Amino acid sequence: MTTSSSTPRRADYALGLLNELLAQTPVGDKLKPERELAAEFGVSRRVIRDALDQLESQGRIVRTPGRGTVVQDHPSLQGSLRALGGEPAPQLPRAQEDKTLSQIESFTVPDAVILGSSPIDLMNARLVLEPAIAATAAMHASTQDIHSMQDLIERGRQAQTPHEWEHWDSALHQRIGDATHNQLLQYFYRVLSVARSQTEWGRLRQQTLNTKNQQLYSEQHAAILQAIQARAPQEAAECMRTHLHTVKRTLIDGIDL
User: Fold this and answer.
1) Which of 4, 95, 109, 185 could form a disulfide bond with 180, CB atoms 3.0-4.6 angstroms apart?
2) In this predicted structure, what is the pLDDT of residue 202?
3) Is 1.20.120.530 the CATH classification of the domain at 94-254?
4) pLDDT value of position 186
5) Alpha helices in 25-118 (DSSP H)
C-alpha cells in the first residue's frame, strides 16, 4: 500500500524538479545523464525515466542515442509572460477544453474550397507548409514519433498497389505533422489531407505512380526522416522541399493538366 501510493508522489516530485531544471536550462543544452539526475533528486532511475518520457511526449526535450537529452522548449510559457509583464491567457475548464478540441477535430473543409482547388494548387500549398512542418518536427519529434515514421516508411516500401502506397504515404506525412507537437500546424496539415483525399489528386497520383517513382519517393522519405532524427531543421526542410518538387514535376510531366 505504501509502495503503490508513494510511487506517484515520487514521480510527481521528480517531474516538478525536472520542470524547474528545464526552466533554468537554455534550449539546445543537454541535461545530466539519468543516473546523475536520479542521485541528485533521490529517486530511482525508473522514476526519472518515466518523467523524461512524459516531458518528451510534450515536446520539451528530445532524447537521442549518443547525444543524450536535449532541452527543446521551456515548460512555462505562463511564467515567461508574467516575467515580461504580460498576462497569460486564462485556462479553460477541462470540460470546455474538451468541447473546444472536439469542435476543432470535427471541422470540415468547405466543398467550395475543395472543388475549386486543382492538384497543382494543392502541391503549391504543400510546398509552402510542409518544409516548415518538417523543420519543426526536426526540433520537436519524440523517439516514439521517429519509430512511427520508420514503420510507415517501411510499410510504404512494401505497398503492392498505388492505392496502398498512397495510404501509407499520406499517413507518413500526417505523422510528420503530428511530430511538430504544435496543434495549429497539425490542424493545417489535416486540412491539406482532406484536400488531398477529395480532389483529383488521388486519381492523378495513381496514374503517375509506378515502381520507379515509388522507390524514389521512399528514398526521399528516408532522407527526410534522417534529417528529423539528426535534429537538423534546415536539412529536413530542404529534403521535404526536394521531395515535393519531385512529386509536382512527376504530375506535370505525366499528365497534361
Assistant:
1) 185
2) 61
3) yes
4) 87
5) 34-41, 45-57, 77-83, 94-105, 111-115
For residue 126, give the nearest of 55, 201, 68 by alpha carbon.
Answer: 201
Ordered by start, the domain boundaries in the chain are 2-71, 94-254
Asked if residue 129 lies in contact with residue 257, where contact means CB atoms within 8 angstroms, the answer is no
Helix (H) or strand (E) segment spanning residue 64: strand 61-64
d(CA 118, CA 104): 25
The CATH architecture annotation of domain 2-71 reads Orthogonal Bundle (1.10)
How many residues are recorded in the chain?
257
Residue-level pLDDT at 7? 54
Asked whether 22 and 16 are in contact (CB, 8 A), the reply is no
> Are the beta carbons of 217 and 243 closer than 8 angstroms?
yes
Q: How confident is the model at residue 111 (pLDDT cuts 50, 70, 90)?
A: low
State pTM to two decimals.
0.59
- Percent of the chain with pLDDT strictly greater than 90: 26
Do the domains 94-254 and 2-71 match in fold?
no
